[in-house]
Write a structure and sequence with these properties.
- The chain is mostly helical and 386 residues long.
- Among the domains are: 82 residues; 185 residues.
- Helices cover 70% and strands 2% of the residues.
- The strands form two sheets. The chain has a two-stranded antiparallel sheet with strand order 1-2. A two-stranded parallel ribbon has the order 3-4.
- Strand 1 and strand 2 form a beta hairpin.
- Helix 6 runs antiparallel to helix 8, helix 6 runs antiparallel to helix 11 and helix 9 packs across helix 11.
- The longest helix has 65 residues.
Length: 386
Amino acid sequence: MESTVDSGYASSSGWLSPHPDYALSRTYENWKIADAASQRLVADLRALEVCRTQLQAAKRRRNLEQKSPKPGRKPSLLQLPFGKRKSAKASEPPLSTSPRLDGPSTETLPSVDELEAQLEQLNDRITAAQPAAERLDAYFEELRRLLDDGRPVSWRSSISSGHGHSSADEYTRARKTVGARDQAYVDGKVTTKALQHACNAIQSAHHHYMKAMELLDAVCSPKKSRWEAVMGDEQSRQTTYREAAEWAKKAQICFNECVRALQPHWDLLKRDELQDCEDLQNTGLLQAVQLYKLMYGGKILAMGITQQVQIMVQKQDAVFARLTNFAVWVQDCTKFCETVELDARESRDAARRHLVALWVKADEDTERYSLAAPSENSHVFTATSV
């Protein structure tokens, strides 16, 4: 009698016909479902980013159209500035530095309503695909546990794959490719997560610093007489200075957190970003705190306060401009890292599909086990290059 081969999860005599392993078949089917959901999810995430960009452009175009005068309409005689041609020219709005939105490239741009409906549809599809896609790793690891080196005959066979290499060599290359791309995806996720955290922190710092500036503008700007009429006595002014100082402290904490999150990925920063970050670290974001101490924290000659306040306000404006530039860079870099992570995910999943295709082919070649349940056709994968 012919001897049997026990793979650890099923065995049979050589003369018996293939029979299914139901647990393996279910895992394989679940992996296929999750893999399809993951592919849809990646495609929808890319489409979502494009839709958001188009929606922003469509809103800018709509705003320009609403502000621009209606064509073919003559101005009223009551609106003509007789004898004041220079002032009329001065009253014209300055040219916008934003890209033109009325060119041929935007003629086919969908309307805001259409894009908002598309955005909602994409979000719904993403929400629906996420639960299945999130189980992809678990199902693949289960397939790996059941099939990876599960049948010694498959991977130790000397049968040529038709390309001058043995099946074992092809499998070894496929497995190494999966390992390398899996690590690249993990590294991409770590980088993206750190940049997202840094982006949230720097956006919070920017918001808090702007709140401090708005409060100080109420008591330090040339228009302060109007604000003073509203705010009232000196006690209210001191409260405003103190509140601005608290916002500045929050901004400093958030900026420090952004720098901490970026430290492991410092190589992403180019010269300009490094300079901005270094300058912000040196100057700090506590100008409002310094102003509060200047006004209420010590004995300073009254004749010098006004000049020192002006210097501090100018310094605050320069810090805000630098903080804005740095926040924009962190935001753009975060988007780039998200794209890289998505590319790495697609590349990894493609390598996994190739490896699973080799597993399926080996399953058919052994003629001992079947991934297909009774009365079902065998699942055939095409081992495409990745």
